[in-house]
Amino acid sequence: MKEAAGAQEVSESERLLFGGPLRYDGGWSRHDGSFLELGLRAMVLRMPRLIGSTIRLAHRADRRALLQVAVAEAGGGIAQAVGLVAVNRVLAQLLEQGETTERLAAAAPALVAVAVTAVVGALLKSASTAGTGRLEPKVFRVATEEYLERVARVELAAVEDEEFHKLLDSAQWGAESARRMIRFCASVVTAAIALIAAAGVLTALHPVLLPLLAMMTLPSAWSALTIARRRYVSFHTWVQHARAGQLLGRLLIDVQAAPEVRVHNIGPFLLKHFRTMAETGEREQTRLASLAARTGLIASGWTGLATVTTYGVLGVLLWTGAMDLAVAGTAVIAIRTGSANLESLVVQLNYLYEESLFVADLDRLCREADRRLIPATGRPLPRRIDAVRFENVTFTYPGTVDGRPALKDVSITIPTGRIVALVGSNGSGKSTLAKLLCGLYAPDAGRILWGDVDAAEADRADLFDRVAVVAQDFYRWPFTARVNIAIGRPEAPYDDDLLHAAAAYAGADDTVASLPRGWDTLLARGYKGGHQISGGQWQRLGIARARHRAARILVVDEPTSALDAEAEQQVFDRIRDLAAEGQTIVLITHRLHSVRHADTIYVLEHGRVVEQGTFDELMRPDTDGPGLFRRMYLVQSEQYRLDGSAALSAPQDDRTAEPQR
Ligand SMILES: Nc1ncnc2c1ncn2[C@@H]1O[C@H](COP(=O)(O)OP(=O)(O)OP(=O)(O)O)[C@@H](O)[C@H]1O
C-alpha cells in the first residue's frame, strides 16, 4: 500500500526491545468492514449509518440536550439562509437605478431582516454551544462504557490476542471521536442549510453559476479527504509503535520499576530508546506533512483555475448581455458566500469522515467483542458434585508460535472436599491446568466434567462462582486494604465482620492493623496517602481475598512463596483446616514438603501427568513411575542438608528450602 510507505524502516530500538517491527503492513485494511478497502464510495454509503449510530449514542446519553442541539443548529442554518437571501435583497435594491434615499428606503425591510436573523442566529448558536457542551462528555462516557462493558466480559483468550488489542487501541480513540462527531454533525447541518440557500440564490440568478460553484470547491474536498485517509492509514500502521513508545516513557516514571531504574542506571538506556522510537514516529509525521503539503498545493492550483473560469464565465455573461451589472454584483457576493459555505461544509464533512473512521473501529471492536463474549447461558452445574474430572485434556495457548501444547492428554480427578496437589518443574503446565479448571480457557480436546456436566456447556457464571483463586501473579489492586479483600466478592455488601474474619484467617490482620490508616489505607504508591506493603504482606491479603470469596473450590498457586517460614506453616495448616470443613483445595507449589498432607499429588512434566499418588506412595523407591517426585524431593532435602547450618543464620532460597517437619 502506497500510504504505508516507510512502514518497514525498523529502528534498532524496536528490534532490540520488542524483537522486530511494531508496524502493520496494511493487512488489517483487508479485514471485514475496513473503510479503506472500499474507498470513497463506501464512505458515502456508510457515513449515514455511522452518523446514525452516533446520534443514537447521543440519544441514549441525553435526549433533551440532543433535541436542543438539533433545533438550535437547524434554526441557525435557516437563520443564515434567510439572512443570505435578505443580504442579496439589500444588494439588489441598492444596485437598482434611482435616488439613493429611495433605494435605501426600499432596502430597509431587508436590512431589518438581516439584523433580526443575525440576532436570532447568535442566540441559537449559544443555545447549540450549551447543548453540545452538555452532550459531548456524556456521549464520550456512553461510548466508552459500551466497549468497556463488553471487553470486561470477553474470553481471556481474546484479551491476550494481539489483533484484539490493536482494535482496543483504536477503539479508545473511537469514543473520543464519537464525542467530537456531535459537534461536526451540528456544524454540517448548519453549513448544509446555508449552502442550500446560497445555491438557491445562485440558481435564481443564473443556472450556470451552480456547477461553477461546485467546481471551485471540488479540489479542496478531494485534498481534505485524501489527507484524512492517509492520516488514518498511518495511525493504524503505527498504533503499536506509538503504544510501545508511550510504554518506555511510562516505565521511566513507574513506581514498581523505580528502584531498578535507579540502582541499575536504566534511566539513560530507556531514554535513549524512547528518543529513537519517538524520532522514528516523527519521521512518519514529517512524511505525512510533506505529502499533505503537496496534495494541498495541487488542490489550490485546481481551485485557482476553477475560480478564474467562474469569473471568466461571469465576464462572458456580462459581455454578451445575458446578465445585468446589478445581477452580476449580487452573483459575485453569492458566489463568495456560497463557496465559503461549501468550503465549510466540505471541511466539516471531512472532519466527520475522519472521526467516523475511528467510530467505525469502535463499532468493529464492539462486534468483535460480542463474537468473543463469554456465553451468558449454559447448563447449570449440579448443586452437589462428587468431583471435577479432567478427561484426556489437551490445550494449546492461542497464538503459540511453535504450536506446542501446554497440556497433553491430561486426566486427573479433583474429589470434593479433598486436597489435590500439582507439582512439577517450571513451565510443566500446573498454572495452565488451574486456569482450565477455573473456566478461563476451554480444552482443545478432552473434557472437564463437573459431576456430569461438561464445563464447555456449563453456565460459566455458575462455574466462576464456585472457584476462588490465589494466582501466582494475583492482582494487587491499587485501592484500599478493605477493597483489596472485599473485591473477592465485589457484589456482596461490605460486611466488616466477614472482612476481619478473612484477614485473621490469612494472618493479614496484623498487617492491616499496622497500616497508617488501617483498613482505609490506600495500597498504591504515587497517590495521596498511598502506602507500600511488602510482598509477603500482599500475599496474606491475596489469601484473605480468596478466603473472603468463600467458594467451593480454592485454587492456590504458590501461596507462600513470599512468606516467612512461620507464616508459611500457618497458611498450610489453615488450608488443611479448610479441606476438613469440606472445601476442595487445589494446591500448586514447588515446596514439596507442603504437599505431604495432600490426598493426591499429580506430578506434571512437559504438559503431561507423569506420576500420581499420595506422598508416601510417590516417595517409595520402587514406585512404578519415573520417580520424578522422589528425586525432586531428595534434591530439596540434600540442599537443606548442605545449607542446614548456614540456614540458621541466613535466609534460604524459598524454593529449595528443606521441608520443616
Ligand atoms: N498466557 C499464556 N500464553 C501463551 N503461553 C503460555 C501462557 N501461560 C503459560 N504459557 C506457556 O504454557 C506452558 C506452561 O506454563 P504454566 O504457567 O502452566 O507452567 P507452570 O507449571 O505453572 O510453571 P511455573 O512453575 O513456572 O509457574 C509454558 O510453556 C508457558 O510458556
From TrEMBL:
Residues 77-354 form the ABC transmembrane type-1 domain. Its main location: membrane. Residues 388-631 form the ABC transporter domain. This is ABC transporter ATP-binding protein. It is a multi-pass membrane protein. One of its GO terms (molecular function) is ATP binding. InterPro entries: AAA+_ATPase, ABC1_TM_dom, ABC1_TM_sf, ABC_transporter-like_ATP-bd, P-loop_NTPase, Type_1_exporter. Coiled coil: none annotated. It holds the Pfam family ABC_tran. The keyword Translocase does not apply. The chain crosses the membrane at residues 65-86, 106-124, 181-202, 208-228. It is found in: Cell membrane. It comes from Streptomyces thermogriseus. The lineage of its organism: Bacteria, Bacillati, Actinomycetota, Actinomycetes, Kitasatosporales. Keywords: ATP-binding, Membrane, Nucleotide-binding, Transmembrane, Transmembrane helix.
